[in-house]
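Hey,
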Amino acid sequence: MPKIKPEKKSRIHASVAKQGITFNKTFGQHILKNPLIITSMLDKAALKPSDTVLEIGPGTGNLTLKLLETVKQVIACEIDPRLVAELQKRVQNSPLKSKLQILIGDVLKTELPFFSVCVANIPYQISSPLVFKLLLHRPFFRCAVLMFQKEFADRLVAAPGDKLYCRLSINTQLLARVDMLMKVGRNNFRPPPKVESAVVRIEVRNPPPPISYTEWDGLTRIAFSRKNKTLGAAFRQSVVLATLEKNYKSFCSVNGKEVPPGFSVKEKVEQVLKGVEGEQKRARTMDIDDFMVLLHAFNSEGIHFS
């Protein structure tokens, strides 16, 4: 993959600097300045003139302006009022102004309106919660093209058996198809971050898998708490058994069933694992189908994870 040379300092960044605006690392502000990467991200999003695009962390508006030239509407969510003012200034006397809606605040605490595509260079420290906020957003959107820290992007696309394969990998891949698009060097940003970056395309599965995501998340949380250990070891932890016993008794109560005399949650869990030949399996090598079978087996015996 050819390397993209970083662009020289732009007039926009010089203007921002003259106004005394320093980028806030608390908000993860690293402004993407290379127009070739911006163009590539737009191409990979396969935008249509009728699209409504969500952008998170628009910064000084380099990506925003390109989006406004291409689509029907851009919804930009920005937490920093100084950069909101800068963005508003860039479209002030432009016909593009009517196509821009700005949401001021923390995107994780904001109720997002309808959008068909998300394109963004997001603050890296909110990567994980933001991914799942987007994946669980309704109505469904067509795709998202997002810039992440490279190691986070590698975890998103990791396969069973890979060193970086983890709960993030399998939970994301349950809900979406994820593809690595390109690597981006740190010198393509101002100020340069301390890490390398990568762009990922996410397409939400529609319809979603026919399971309770909270149940699934509870199961993978236990399994990946010790991903290199066997499932037998992961489920023998006293805190895990106590939680599952509480959930089992709640399940019986809600469904009008009596807890069997001498009930042992440890024995019940061992029975389920043995039934699916799962006691010696390790989370780091298990795929989505493996976990589907395991979740169904537990639920069938009244063992729940939420």
